[in-house]
Amino acid sequence: MLTHAATVVSAAVAAAVVPQGLLLPESVVQSAPFKILAAFVAINTLVYGTLAAAKALPKVHAPAWFGGRNRRAQNRSIFPEPPEHDS
User: Fold this and answer.
1) Does the predicted TM-score (pTM) go above 0.85?
2) What is the pLDDT of residues 50-68, one digit of tens each?
3) CA-CA distance, 63 to 69, in Å (whole number)?
């Protein structure tokens, strides 16, 4: 753990090395092309985030929601069901 004095010194060194404020001038950030680019990046981020979340979720099989209209009346498997016993 850093002591309070070490934290203050490291903050002072970081402030001296890294310039404070925006990386670009305010005139560039407030320009129309920059705003369009920022909107495009925001929408792109939302789309790719949604796609990533959708890919991580389990698949949804819509035919399983509805009744068996498309079910066979008889088992046509190569593995027959065991015979039923009358009890």
Assistant:
1) no
2) 999 999 998 877 766 666 6
3) 10
